Amino acid sequence: MAAVDSFHLLYRDISRSCSSHFEALALIGALYTASKAVVLLRDCCMVVRVHFLPRMLPSRGKLTQRYGEWAVIYGASEPVAHAYAEQLAQNGVSIIFITEDGSTVRDAVAFLSQTYGVETSVVTASFSLGQAPIKPLLEALSGKDIGFLVNCVEEISASPKSLLEIPEQGVLDQVNRNVTAATLVARLVLPGMVERGRGAVVNISSGTCCRPLPGRVPLTAFAGYLDHFSRALRFEYSNKGIFVQSLIPFRDQSSSSREGLFAPSPGIYARHAISTLGVSNRTTGYWPHTLQVSNMFLSEFLFLMFEWIWILASRMFLI
Fold first, then answer.
1. Domain 63-157+168-285 falls in which CATH fold?
2. Which of 233, 257, 230 is CA-nearest to residue 246?
């Protein structure tokens, strides 16, 4: 019993001598928690501003008036790019598809023309042939009010594959399709946008540029390139009336086994993504994916909860 009393007295003496340190630690914890709360509030406001307000408030005018009457779509064989082109067509934007294989967009061309009454055309171009595709591309762009350029990275393979398992020529082909093509098409489209003082460049890459995945080395690299390419274009051309956006979606139904909140269909994703056009220069385009990036409702909440527990416990020890 005496030992217990002695321990209690010893602990009380130590607590008194360290009370100032406890108060300092409690203050630091409170400041850290407050900073986290501010970050959480900022992220919540960002989600509302980017993903909800544009869908709730009236549009600032037709897309054709704000940017132009035609859109150039590269990578339309990807479901997300095809869905994005459909969203543009719904807004009266005519579509030019650039592809290496015209058969991959034949059905899309017919569907958009018949359903939305917009003009469509297809340019077949192989970007592994040096400057060969430049002439047909310039001919297709000539005389048109190009207001949109949409580049989409390819989902290189359905299943993860090590870089060493990809043939050398396969690597070169992927670089040409995902890096060379996006850069060259932007080079051909931008002069007209700069001359008119308006336009939008949308580069659709992948969330792997934020979180690399095993077996996805090329996809991660190409997604990172498009993301930084978008930032560089924005830095150079935003003062010339051109809006540049980097879309970094995570999984959708086309790359997942089934549709869900965090794996939307390409159509749902494109409908959300196009509402962020002119609002955010770099976004996932879909609010559940934004929550995945920031982990707002999980990690931030847990941080705050544990920090407040620590503060309350420190105060209890001071009593």
1. Rossmann fold (3.40.50)
2. 230
Does residue 127 contact residue 184 with C-beta atoms inside 8 Å? yes
Place of tokens 């350029």: 149
What whole-number distance in Å separates Cα of residue 9 and Cα of residue 79? 71
Q: What is the 3-state secondary structure (H, E, C) of 3-30?
A: HHHHHHHHHHHHHHHCHHHHHHHHHHHH
Residues linked to residue 99 through DSSP beta bridges, in sequence order: 124
Q: Between 257 and 145, name the one with better pLDDT.
A: 145
Rounded to whole angstroms, the Cα distance separating 259 from 269 reads 11
pTM of the predicted structure, to 2 decimals: 0.78
- Domain extents for the chain? 2-45+297-318, 63-157+168-285
> How many whole angstroms separate alpha carbon 224 and alpha carbon 113?
34
pLDDT one-digit tens code per residue, 20-54:
666 676 777 778 777 777 877 777 777 777 777 77
**Residue 286: which residues within 8 A CB-CB, separation 6 or more?**
51, 249, 264, 268, 269, 272, 273
Token couple for 235: 């830095």
> CA 209, CA 201: separation in Å to the nearest integer?
19
Burial of 98 (0-12, 13-18, 19+ CB in 10 A): buried
Distance CA 97, CA 112 (A): 12
